Amino acid sequence: MHPRLTTDLAELPSLLEATRLQAAEMLGRLDEQPVVPPLRAPAPEPLPEEGAGLAATLAEFARTWAPLFSASAGPRYLGFVTGGVTPAALAGDWLTAAADQNPASALDGAAPELERRTIAWLRDLFGLGAAHEGTFVSGATMSNTVGLAIAREWLGQRAGVSVAEEGAAALGRVTVLSGSPHSSIAKGLSMLGLGRTALIPVPTVQGREAVDPVALERALTQVEGPCVVVANAGTVNTVDYDDLRAITALRERHDFWLHVDAAFGGFAALSPDHADLVAGLDAADSICIDLHKWLNVPYDSAVQFTRHQDLQVRVFQNAAAYLGPLGETPDHVHLTPENSRRLRALAAWFTLRAYGRDGHREIVERNIACACALGQAIKTIPGLRLLAPVRLNVVCFTLAEDPTAERLADLAAALAEEAFLTPTTYAGVPALRAAFSNWRTTQIDVHRITEALKGSLDRLS
């Protein structure tokens, strides 16, 4: 064994303790460090011929790179829709790396069974019935893509072809209808050979991002050939929801696959006051839910649900002698594009076991309350304008005068050390969006963000 490896193995307990202390120090300064610090990266270096060993590497990381990382795990990182990591999820993730399990095959330990049981908990958490089978994927983009891949096979089956065997050309042109689709839908269609132009926008309800059910039915009557409807349970800008029950009712008259993108909006199911927003979710053929958003587990972790796991296996099955037979309960290697991956389920299992439904409900409801408080505060700040009602956990706002993309970027930059917000465009107006999904965030943080907004506006004026 290499001498550096020999030394690190012999000293591993103390080195892991040093790593724990460094991690605790990083987490301990989240409340006060700049949310997005100025980037002053160290000069590039060639690959070292002789390594420094873990102790020296820990010290170098703490000195050079750790101070440059954003506080994305902290309470005022409101960009994108980024959750933090609950204490239990952090512990689960550390043990994931230590155990280094590959849950793809049932030939190797209990990891696949732990994943199935975690999926069952998640199915219950989101109010889904037993007909929905699930599997872990890397994020919302892969979850949406897997759902669309299963849809593609379903459409082929109805046309008398197997796309998995014969290719997308055998299916012909597919139409995908959606009101306010996430960008990952077009990306998934591109990867699946269906093409970005397959995505046809459908008019939304006036003043909202929710699809107009009347316009959707009109579009369905004009479709010739295979069709997928992508419904949204929580849009990016305003967390608007399509009427899932109305869309489901359209299947009585029209033949289409229903995929629901509920990446973070699906968590409305946890709150009794908001659960009606996802009424009808269980009727979907496939569902995307992103766990490293509001479940507050580490990147990368999402779940993909479907009622048609037999078709999922047809798309993703892998044939190799070392994998063993397919069997009645398919191994995870047959369910997603990945043949091997880390045990993503363990962090989710830890946080669900540690805090249960009630703990995660509290996180969701507290985040919603924080978003509502910021929305109310923005209404009182001269120079800012709320662009849409705060329906759940996202606040979409802009400058009251001359809201150009450049001025909004300047405002975001002025805020960056105190709070991180991402740019967007809503109804043609450049804007900023604050997405609350971190388990640490409280009303104290809302007050700090509000004061930072006021100060930043003063500096820009």
TrEMBL record:
The answer to whether UniProt assigns keyword Transferase to this entry is yes
> Which InterPro entries does the entry link to?
Aromatic_deC, PyrdxlP-dep_de-COase, PyrdxlP-dep_Trfase, PyrdxlP-dep_Trfase_major, PyrdxlP-dep_Trfase_small
Name one molecular function that GO assigns to this entry. Answer: transaminase activity
This protein's UniProt keywords = Aminotransferase, Decarboxylase, Lyase, Pyridoxal phosphate, Transferase
Q: Which cofactor does it need?
A: pyridoxal 5'-phosphate
Q: Which Pfam families match?
A: Pyridoxal_deC (PF00282)
Q: Which family does it belong to?
A: Belongs to the group II decarboxylase family.
Protein name in the entry? Aspartate aminotransferase family protein
What organism does the UniProt record list as the source? Actinomadura nitritigenes
